[in-house]
Amino acid sequence: KRFPEIIINFKIYTEGFGKAGHSIAKAAEMVMNETGVIIGIAPGYMDLHPMSVHYSLPVYAQHIDPVKPGAGTGHILADAVVSAGACGTLINHSEKRLTLADVSLAVEIAKSVHLETIVCTNDVFTSAAAAAFSPEFIAIEPPELIGSGVSVSTADPGIINNSVSAVKNISGDTKVLAGAGIHSGNCVKTAMELGADGVLLASGVVKAKDPYAVLTDLAGGVI
Ligand code: G3P
């Protein structure tokens, strides 16, 4: 099975839902078809189902709650995300943090419904802790660089290679994504040279004037 090398988190940016969100997904699909680089998207919940139907892209939820079906209200169920067409989910994004116990339960529940797990971490220690749950991916994102336009690849290369070694020592099959401030093919190339298997990014694509051009450049950096 091939996993995405580039995942775009649409967050709750105005440019990321409805018509605007669809044009980003369309651009991602074109670039994936043209380059062969697998591009995943993480749109808002409302767009999971339409986007998973309209585009041949792997679609991820931005979060799930660590709950099982039953008497609960207002939670995001792993099972519902699967039935909406998602193949995986982010867990513990810096903007939607969970306790360690809840990360553990969310990963366990996701696995039980065959949802790929991308556990986000903020430093090398949390990357090591998350590796103990053997998720499909760990996405290391230094919070201070998120949305800054300053790339983790150049501003904090050590956090990438140290997370890669920490993770691979504990869970050899877990892939590591690097994120925060990624905006160009060069950022992607450097992250991969540092041992990352791919990148997770948001503003560089979602807020771009021409997402297709940025995605083409990003895909060119995949090594
Ligand atoms: O989930 C990706 C994200 O937190 C990184 O954001 O805008 O720095 O690419 P950005």
Architecture blueprint of SSEs:
Layout: E1 6-9, H1 18-35, E2 39-42, H2 45-54, E3 60-61, H3 78-83, E4 88-91, H4 100-112, E5 116-121, H5 124-131, E6 137-140, H6 152-155, H7 157-170, E7 175-179, H8 185-193, E8 198-201, H9 203-206, H10 211-220
Parallel strand pairs: 1-2, 1-8, 3-4, 4-5, 5-6, 6-7, 7-8
Report on this model:
The chain is α/β, with parallel strands linked by helices and 223 residues long. The chain is 43% helix and 15% strand. The chain contains 10 helices and 8 strands. The protein has helices spanning 18-35, 45-54, 78-83, 100-112, 124-131, 152-155, 157-170, 185-193, 203-206, 211-220, and strands at residues 6-9, 39-42, 60-61, 88-91, 116-121, 137-140, 175-179, 198-201. Strands 2-1-8-7-6-5-4-3 form an 8-stranded parallel beta sheet. Helix 8 (185-193) links the parallel strand 7 and strand 8. Helix 8 packs parallel to helix 10. The radius of gyration is 16 Å and the shape is globular. The protein binds SN-glycerol-3-phosphate. SN-glycerol-3-phosphate binds next to strand 8 and helix 9. Residues 9, 93, 141, 146-147, 179-182, 200-204 line the site of SN-glycerol-3-phosphate.
Q: Portion of residues in helices?
A: 40-55%
**What is the approximate shape?**
globular
Distance between the first and last residues' Cα? 18 Å
Q: What would you report as the Rg, rounded to the nearest angstrom?
A: 16 Å
Distinct ligands: SN-glycerol-3-phosphate
What string, H for helix and E for strand, traces the elements in order? EHEHEHEHEHEHHEHEHH
How many strand segments? 8
Overall pLDDT level: 98
Contiguous uncertain segments of 5+ residues:
none
The strand order across the widest sheet is: 2-1-8-7-6-5-4-3
Beta-strand proportion: 5-15%
The major β-sheet equals: 8 strands, parallel
Query: What structural class is derived from the secondary structure elements?
Result: alpha/beta
Contiguous helical run count: 10
